[in-house]
Design brief:
With about 300 residues, the protein is an alpha+beta fold. Helix content is about 20%, strand content about 30%. The protein has eight helices and 18 strands. A nine-stranded mixed β-sheet has the order 1-2-3-4-5-6-7-10-11.
């Protein structure tokens, strides 16, 4: 089915559970949402202090209080480069964790369904280095070896994310799996960014930049995508990552229990909306399986909503 993107370009959505979740044109760029499948997390953890009677109206929970989430990889074809934003959970999770999360390891099949070969990927961007965002950076083989999934790509992550992951703190060490990024750092294939403050970093490639929106982690990066339309106007999309993980999390105060600094998350969401709403950005959600992209407005109560 087709849903209007709000700027005259259709967003094409595959039927539920399709390997290619959505496609749209952003100026001269083609955006395709591929998927590593779905996984399940505790609904209470995903909505923090929000009472269950409120959040379950937006996200149905199973008998173990888990909600279904997507693992969205956005592929940007600029005409000159193929850029991947995020790489899902991957195939390195131990059996116990796969049983808990019920994930499917589908990204290679999804990319193939979208006509994208791993060898043609030029750039891979990790907004942060939690296991569900960088898992297919590398591939685990039967002999125990780990190799880059995208052999010709330059990988980008934030230096502070690597430094934090290496600390292996009790609070979040389960989220950082070294084989997802350390081999790439050692080989020089991964570039570590030193972006600080809120200034966008133009170092990636033309039309693609990153900007810090801290809170979920101290160095969480959103990815900005800009391309000129036929009329010459600049069209803007933003992969906002875990600052706003799904369309059910638009309320500024509906932050996650996983966020390291929830108060900062609230402030950063408000800062994001100050630009995204009046400028009509296309927002790309990292964990919304059914609605991976949307434009955002405000309702009669002044609250942000999906248009």
């Amino acid at each position: 089915m087709n849903l209007c993107s709000g700027a005259g370009q259709p967003i094409e959505l595959d039927p539920a559970w399709g390997l290619v979740r959505a496609r749209t044109q952003l100026g001269d760029f083609e955006l395709t949402v591929c998927t590593d499948g779905t996984y399940k997390l505790d609904g209470g953890a995903m909505f923090g202090v929000v009472p269950k009677p409120l959040w379950e109206k937006r996200a149905a929970a199973d008998d173990q209080n888990r909600i279904l989430l997507g693992l969205n990889t956005v592929v940007v074809r600029t005409g000159k480069q193929t850029v991947l934003i995020e790489t899902g959970i991957g195939n390195k999770q131990p059996a116990k964790m796969r049983e808990i999360h019920c994930n499917q390891e589908l990204l290679p099949q999804s990319l193939a369904a979208a006509g994208i070969r791993p060898e043609e990927v030029d750039v891979v961007i990790n907004t942060h280095l939690h296991f569900d965002h960088c898992g297919w950076n590398t591939t685990l083989h039967a002999d125990g070896s780990v190799t880059p999934t995208f052999p010709n790509a330059r990988y980008f992550a934030h230096r502070g994310e690597v430094e934090h992951g290496r600390l292996q703190l009790d609070r979040d060490r389960v989220s950082y799996l070294a084989p997802n990024y350390e081999p790439l750092i050692e080989s020089g294939q991964m570039t570590l960014l030193d972006t600080d403050g809120i200034k966008a970093d133009p170092a990636i490639c033309p039309g693609i930049s990153v900007e810090l929106f801290p809170g979920h982690t101290a160095q969480l990066m959103a990815v900005h995508i800009e391309s000129n339309s036929a009329s010459g106007a600049v069209e803007h999309a933003c992969y906002v990552s875990d600052l706003i993980p799904t369309g059910a999390h638009l309320d500024p105060t509906w932050v996650m229990g996983y966020d390291l600094d929830p108060v900062e998350c609230i402030a950063q969401r408000k800062r994001f909306y100050q630009r995204a709403i009046p400028e009509n950005w296309l927002v790309l959600f990292t964990h919304d399986h059914e609605r991976p992209m949307a434009r955002i407005g405000v309702n009669e109560k002044g609250r942000p909503v999906v248009l």
